[in-house]
Structures
1.
Amino acid sequence: MADLLIIGGGLAGSEAAHQAARRGLRVRLYEMRPSVQTGAHQTHHLAELVCSNSLGSNLPDRASGLLKNEVRMLGSLLLECAEAASLPAGGALAVDRELFARLVTERVESHPNIEIVREEVREIPASPVIVASGPLTSPALSHSIAGLSGEQHLSFFDAIAPIVHTETINMEIAFRASRYGTGEQDEGDYINCPFTKEEYYAFVEALLQAERIELRSFEEAIKSGVKAGHFFEGCLPVEIIAERGLDSLAFGPMRPVGLRDPRTGRRPYAVVQLRQDNLAGSLYNLVGFQTNLRYPEQKRVFRLIPGLENAEFVRYGQMHRNTFIASPKLLRPTLQHVRRDDLFFAGQLTGVEGYMGNIATGLLAGLNAARLHNHEEPLTLPQTTMLGALCHYVTHANLKDFQPMKANFGILPALESAHKLGKRERARAYADRALADLTSTLIRVREGEPAPGA
Ligand SMILES: Cc1cc2nc3c(=O)[nH]c(=O)nc-3n(C[C@H](O)[C@H](O)[C@H](O)COP(=O)(O)OP(=O)(O)OC[C@H]3O[C@@H](n4cnc5c(N)ncnc54)[C@H](O)[C@@H]3O)c2cc1C
């Protein structure tokens, strides 16, 4: 009889299994490969890296490097295997993917407290469990997860629109306004890029000709429209909308209704609207412009938008399969479900993005499942640590705009004394504070005192 079930032998699930097992729990780890495939994984190994072979920066003053130092302190098995399989890659931790996955598989398989069952789990079990089935969670299990809290709290795709630096928008052409003047700000909430009829058709033509990122089999649904990103929002890439008819964008995301160009006094033929993306107002995103164009093509084609001819892109648009739950509503920073203490989520499903973040949340879920089993309070890590900040972010973000988040210094609480420092020194100060706070948390835990926030 197992003390803990884990669904998914990927990055998070393998790490979680090892953490719980080394604390004495009998763990049953379910992995559906090779009998059921995800479409992205190619082997039967645990912890297979599906794309890049880099686990990000290893430098201590980079966000991903800090996260590595934290999970190193917490005794991560996967980081140990990654280091054993590392390849020369400058400041990054790149690995021989085959060796990495083989090492993890051997270590997990040979652990006396872990039993691996090669089976698809189709329903969330009623006993203590960590769900770590990843961005390509099987449809049956996705259905069961959705059943916990309603389908509107599960997202299947990411749909990210491009973001530009506000100061690079040409305001001699673009103008501020809200449709029918209904916005909150007097000058209008949106920046609008107006098209003449000729400009619009030239833009649509370029969009249709532009090179796209090829969709994988498990992403074909994107072509017919998917629920993506913001929960429950129907999304199609702009280039697919354009394929449906030359004027379909002008009646869709580029519709000009309720807008007048102050320079002509007339309604433009079409409009691209940009919405403020950060509090400082230094970034704006192109509303409804999720896309699968290749990045250089996005730069070329979207610069044809009047007013964006010199726009600098902070982030390009993308659409891809990504199952994640509405963590701000469903999870606690301990990675426990809000309504079930013995139900944990880990990895990409929580909305924490990137290989290292997925390993780190697996580690915390495994550690906390073991603490729960041993009648100890599950740990909430300090928000000043990168892992604590990630868990805090995904469980406290604004649900309406919730998007997966990877390690970055922007999610750590501000450090007043670091205000005047340069970028690198500031990062070092954040990293020093994080490791000091994690050290004191671990000392407190070892001495049996509850951790702060627990
Ligand atoms: C195509 C693709 C490319 C990506 N590329 C990168 C990248 O280059 N860099 C990066 O940092 N991140 C990347 N990511 C994001 C993410 O970091 C990885 O997907 C990462 O592997 C997620 O870790 P995980 O443990 O959450 O899930 P996974 O590593 O995917 O592990 C989940 C495991 O659960 C199994 N499983 C699923 N459903 C069931 C079930 N019902 N029963 C039993 N087992 C099940 C799967 O077979 C899988 O082995 C990518 C994601 C995708 C989809």
2.
Amino acid sequence: MSDPRARIIRGRILSFVGAPRLAGPRAMPVVEDGAVLMENGRIAAVGEAAATIAKAPAGAAVDDHAGKLVTAGFIDTHIHYPQTRVIASYGAQLLEWLQKYTFVEEQRLRDRGHAEVVARFFLDELFRQGTTTAMVYCTVHPESVDAFFEEALKRGARMIAGKVMMDRNAPPGLMDDPRRGYDESKALIARWRGRGRLDYAVTPRFAVTSSEAQLEAAGALLRETPGAYMQTHLDENVAEIAFVKQQFPWAASYLAVYERYGLLGRRSVFGHCIHLERSEVAAMAASGSVAAFCPTSNLFLGSGLFDMKRLDENGVRISLATDVGGGTSYSMLQTANEAYKVLQMGGQSWPAVQAFYQMTLGNARALGLEDRIGSIREGLEADIVVLDARATPAMAHRMDSVAGDLAEELFILMMMGDDRAVRQTYVAGRPVKDAPA
Ligand SMILES: [Zn+2]
């Protein structure tokens, strides 16, 4: 729920109004002694501290974060909440990792009670890390979706999630069938979509675990639910790609499988997109589909290096994501850190301002949510994070050599920062870091 009481955050306000690559420094106005006034879950005013505080009603709470950076909450565009107990499982590439760890743990989420425990942990952890919105995979069990949405609704968070659809190449306990996958997804959409700040993503896990009939059903769900999202995986691992080609011999490419069933579009987010063929890049761009860059996962599972420059130059929309539990950190700061290194391996540069843009407004735009979240602007939902670039002794030591250079400070935050650098997180105007839900 949102906080009905007015609350002021005082600090250095950093909020993007455009992409830094296109707009340059104008993309990122900073108010050194600024304040944000939040009322009824929304941003009521933002600007110079004195003027903003003067607008506050009597009795408004004041959270003084003077000197700390105040930005929009982070957005994670690809994450699996049922994998919180298998994060950091040793030694396997994608297909083996799924069988050995993930599919074992995901079966436990059939139990609603267990799913609730995991959902609570997951949301607590996201908030501790400054992440206020995520696009989330549940398991094949409707109970796992109910547990997640129930908890997100209670906390007033903007979340997108969906029931995984899988009807082959998985343990029996993790499979539905085309009819059941469709019916259960349909019922979940009716039950949850549009309640609070929740939205639904039709979620065929990937082509490996869905039959043609199931992908057809996923396409039907999307057609019948205007504005709904679609999330799946694409071109992550070479063995996976070979397997897909074997299963769909008629398809010209991996993406052509999804294309055949109408799964591409501006609200479709494809995790990984590492080994794209030229025709796939063109189809991603033409359809406005989003490629979710998941660097810690790609390194951890040995999948490969994301080529941001190539996708960007070809007009593919890009987002950044953790992909926990293939990903190894819930922190978007640490995800940006590893993204920077992946891009370095490809000879590509990625200034910190672009990384911060991507974690906030960039990811909001990728999800078509920039009129609700992703920046600190009057009327938007009050999802905000406060960051401290001196959070650890090593960071403070490093910061001593920075003479008021914001780009350097942001770079230190993304290379050295994690949950310790998140001083507070606000969801719908309410402080939620380490707060009881
Ligand atoms: Zn994933």
